[in-house]
Amino acid sequence: MGYKTLCFGLTCILFVFYIYTPMPENIEEPWKIRITDAAIKTTSLMAMILEKIGLKSFETLYATLIKLDYTQPISDENVTVMDTTFSDIPVRLYLPKRKRESQRPAVIYIHGGAFVLGSYKHTPMDLLNRWTANKVDAVVVGVDPRLAPQYPFPAPYEDVVSVVKFFLQDKILAKYGVDPNRVCISGDSSGGTLAAGVTQLIQNDPELKSKLKAQALIYPGLQLVDVSVPSHREYEHGPLLPWKVAIKLGCLYFTQDRAIPQAMMKNQHMPHGSMHLFKLVNWSTFLPEEYKKNHVYTEPILGRLNPSYSILLDTRLSPLAVNDSQLQNLPLTYILTCQHDILRDDGLMYVSRLRNVGVKVFHDHMEDGIHGALSFMASPIYLKLGIRIKDNYINWLEENL
Ligand SMILES: *[C@@H]1O[C@H](CO)[C@@H](O)[C@H](O)[C@H]1NC(C)=O
Ligand SMILES: *[C@@H]1O[C@H](CO)[C@@H](O)[C@H](O)[C@H]1NC(C)=O
Ligand SMILES: *[C@@H]1O[C@H](CO)[C@@H](O)[C@H](O)[C@H]1NC(C)=O
Question: How far is the CA of 108 from the centre of ligand 2 (A)?
Fold first, then answer.
């Protein structure tokens, strides 16, 4: 009896230690965030155990849980909602019911979920797109690109390209009453990565007549070249998105070879021939002083991995790592960054790089922000931060699109 109690007690202590994350001081609703963070960590632990004993892969458990929260396309008093496909890719359309003489703006939205999870069907995404359609009086297109690891890179990227090219055709824009000069592409987290990469392709393609008016990137991940920037170091243990989980899921986007995440955790994953990318993601050059603090810049270590991993040089995985010449033609940009987020510095560096080449950028920085807050705008977890991010983003669209 005494022995069992002791074991149980020790297990509890170990568990609490495992899920304990130091919380930044200035965050709103710290207890809600603590509980959410603990729930995510417990799920990760369970997922890791299931994966170790060979029952389920790490990401399947997450995917199963998120699917419980999927919605049907339900129209409301303001917006007609329907599921269809564009170029064989599933999309959910939100068409405002309000009468309008002139053409409407449009938003193409790519959901987050580390390229592995999520859908436009997920309740918070459905709400976000519905609210956007109503408030901005815009046609909104939620996109479900194929997901890794079943469909690794470049499949998700190519799906977004297909949807955007399909939608930008004159006859399709006309069908939905959309103004060709007022189309924005938006995305959060990995959706922001896709939105940024696809925007670079569309704006730099001389064959394409229709262009995007704007891109809106909400706490996007923008590079895999250097995974030891100050925000990675400061928020390694979360809240919400621990660095190791991000690397594990991020690598699944393009490989199931476990050598890659292992090398990435030592920042020695980049192959020979990739040195020219370092200066394009150099945080010591592109971060504002206040974010550099006492950090010392060290270059990623080259060439420890099999050189066949040239995929890591593909800038569609790292839209921050392109030349200035590919940034110059980018449209009006909205970037939202969160202070307490490993991906913070990717966003901050993109702000600097875009402004350096004269692209107009509106930068929203949430001083008390944490990664993924947009996913907590409805029960079971409702964060005021999620609502503020949503409001900032939609207000910006209202004023700028
Ligand atoms: C419809 O729009 C009005 C005005 O914006 C808003 O007050 C109402 O909540 C909306 N209805 C739904 C179901 O979103
Ligand atoms: C990064 O930036 C720092 C400071 O601007 C500079 O000293 C260093 O050489 C740069 N390294 C690379 C690889 O660009
Ligand atoms: C970027 O610029 C460098 C030198 O200016 C060039 O060697 C390289 O090919 C360019 N990369 C791309 C993707 O345009």
Answer: 36
